Amino acid sequence: MAQPAYVQGTLDTLLSADGSVDPAALSLRDTTFVVLDLETTGGAPDGGGITEIGAVKVRAGEELGVLGTLVNPGERIPPFITVLTGITEAMLAPAPPIEAVLPSLLEFLRGAVLVAHNAPYDVGFLKAACARHGHPWPQVRVLDTAALARRALTKDEVPNRKLGTLAQFFRAAVQPTHRALDDARATVDVLHGLIERLGSYKVHTLGDAIEFAKAVTPTQRRQRHLADGLPHVPGVYVFRAADERPLYVGTSVDIATRVRSYFTASEKRARMSEMIGAAVRVEAVECAHSLEAEVRELRLIAAHAPPYNRRSKYPERVVWLKLTAEAYPRLSVVRSLADDDAAYLGPFSSRRTAELAAAGVYDAVPLRQCTHKLSVKTRTPACALAELGRCPAPCEHEITPEEYAHRAALPFRTATYGDPQPLVDALLARIEALSDRQRYEEAAVIRSRLVALLRATVRMQRLGALTGISELVAARRNDAYGWEIVVVRHGRLAAAATSPPRLHPRPTLDMARATAETVLTGPGPVPAASAEETERILAWLERPDTRLVETSGDWVSPARGAARFTTLLTRAEAAASRRDSSVRSSVTDRSDDARSLRL
Segment Disordered: which positions (predicted)? Predict the structure, then answer.
């Protein structure tokens, strides 16, 4: 039976079930250690091969108990092992087998931290024995003195990290002899010597020692003081440079724990290592709950554009598709919304995405694609699209403004606030026609345009449903049995608060409303906040445990709006992401979905 690989304990394993930190468990002085050593036949850990076990339980430098026994491995001992350890087959013949020793050893380990020199070797044998004989591995935390020594001692002090070398360096009372109990006692003295040395590295807790043993960089070790004194509360943290410039902004439900993780071996990102080296302090912004923290993070990133943040830096760079207000309207990619009667679709994160959606509109309805300003009195020479039958040639007055508005402009305008089905039907018909002619690559291109168009209409109508409400108050229970409260105005978080447990939330709610931000609106579906902020709020509001308390208006979506195509959109996105050539099956499945949605 294959055994799981040995994994050094992490800081997360020091948390109790409710997420709180036990100071007694974290203090090196108050932690109970079981220092263990095994002698084996020298083979791979397969559930057998253990010939001797030695374990010493210590706390605060005091010996609490000893467990030592020979073990009959049930196999022959190689001669070189007998020469190395002095253990003979005659000595092991009357010894108990490992299955008889395991229960006592596991009980001896209960509630303690397992310490061993080159711990993966010893732990591997014990895990294999537990698996073979039906004992669950107790998931004890493990500290490796060899790994600690590699970090705490320089090569000038000790030429290698062998147990004998370290025992000599720390003047251990018992020198290792390749017998389990002697080696365990020598490891106890090595552990105590290393703990004294760790104090100079500001390592005073078990969690710090476990992380210190890992391969953290010198920069991480030097800068770990930046995490000192931070609160264990939800909020935003800001790494700042010497000139107070924000380098990186992040959020967490526990600021202190999250910031500490940047100085552990689990943080391997090169850009974060560079950021840590440039930071001189970490600023904590405490928040009422996780939603407020997420929103504040977005706003800080948008305001300061920290160089080491990659996402959400430039919310103002979104673009929109605008149906121009003229006799023969056309689609135009614009950077901002005007307070006019034009139809807009968006926001899009890039011009490329907007143009992809626009191409889907052109495939579905006969909107002109030229950029000329056309006159209802004077004709203009037609372009190649008109000659190919891809444009109704309004430039040559082949179509009246009324007919053009009905056939070309109205389906797009309606899709922005209501039913996009005419566009969806037209695109699905094109996909089916192309797939029937086995032109699968072209069908896939149309599908990508359908995805871009549907994604934009679903998103815009979903945003507009919330941003049209002047004020909405909602609450949800937190883990401490209090209430997390939000006041949302036109899709913007105007106030956030947390009501204490066992108290009625109404006073807190009233205070939040009274002190909430006054929100001034603008045009479009995101009149007061970024689309990303409103979407974070929507995700919080749509959680099953969130309760709507008060609202100034109806929170509704069109009965035949874009949201009813969500299933079609999800499946089309999944089909587009698959790296295979099964375009025909994916597009025909999509058309079947569309037919069922029409009914």
Answer: 575-599
Is the distance from CB of 334 to CB of 320 less than 8 angstroms? yes
pLDDT at 9: 40
Q: Which residue has the tokens 């959400």?
A: 312
What's the full length of the chain, in residues? 599
Cβ atoms within 10 A of the Cβ of 467, count? 24
Q: Is the distance from CB of 494 to CB of 487 less than 8 angstroms? A: yes
* Dihedral (Cα; 396, 398, 401, 406), 10-degree rounding: -140
Q: Is 263 exposed, middle or buried (0-12, 13-18, 19+ CB in 10 A)?
A: buried
C-alpha distances out from residue 222 to 20, 202, 278, 280, 371, Å: 27, 10, 12, 11, 60
What residues act catalytically? 178
Between the alpha carbon of residue 411 and those of residues 13, 418, 450, the distances in Å are: 57, 10, 15
CA distance linking residue 70 with residue 180, whole number of Å: 9
Fill in the DSSP letter of residue 406.
Answer: I
Closest CA relative to residue 210, chosen from 454, 33, 431: 33
Question: If 0-12 CB within 10 Å is exposed, 13-18 middle and 19+ buried, where does residue 341 land?
Answer: exposed
* CA 19 distance to own-chain centroid: 18
- Residue 259 burial (CB count, 10 A): 20
What the block records as the tokens of 517 is: 């931000």
> Hey, what amino acid is at 308?
Y
Cα–Cα distances in angstroms (integers) from residue 245 to residues 163, 279, 527, 572, in the given order:
48, 9, 29, 43
In 128-141, which positions are buried (b, 16+ CB within 10 angstroms) versus exposed (e)? bbbbbeebeeeebb
- C-beta atoms surrounding 534 within 10 Å: 25
Q: Are 417 and 434 in contact (CB under 8 A)?
A: no
Tell me the pLDDT tens digit for each residue of 177-236: 999 999 999 999 999 999 999 888 778 888 888 878 877 778 888 898 899 999 999 999
Question: Given a cut of 60, is residue 356 above it in pLDDT?
Answer: yes
Are residues 34 and 56 in contact, defined by beta-carbon separation less than 8 angstroms? yes
pLDDT, tens digit (0-9, with 9 covering 90-100), for 291-320: 999 999 999 999 999 999 998 888 888 999
CA 109 – CA 56 distance, rounded (Å): 10
Question: Kind of pairing, strands 113-116 and 142-144?
Answer: parallel
Concatenated DSSP letters of 234-246: SEEEEEE-TTS-E
- Single out the residue of 426, 421, 456, 358 nearest to residue 559, CA to CA: 421
Looking at 199-269, list the stretches that DSSP marks H as alpha helix, in order from N- to C-terminal side: 206-212, 218-223, 255-261
> Which of 456, 432, 442, 461 is CA-nearest to residue 331?
456
Q: Is 375 helix (H, G, I), strand (E, B) or coil?
A: coil
How far is the CA of 295 from the CAs of 247, 248, 288, 372, 496, in angstroms? 18, 15, 12, 42, 10
Six-digit token string for 56: 């010493």
Q: Which of 530, 474, 466, 471 is nearest to 497 (CA)?
A: 474
Q: How far apart are CA 462 and CA 209, in angstroms?
A: 49
**Residue 511: DSSP 8-state:** H
C-alpha distances in angstroms, 353 versus 29, 243, 321? 59, 38, 10
Instruction: Please state, as a whole number, how many other Cβ atoms lie within 10 Å of the Cβ of residue 384.
Output: 8
- For 280, residues 6+ apart whose C-beta sits below 8 A from its C-beta are 226, 240, 241, 242
Q: Are 483 and 546 in contact (CB under 8 A)?
A: no
Are the beta carbons of 27 and 112 closer than 8 angstroms? no
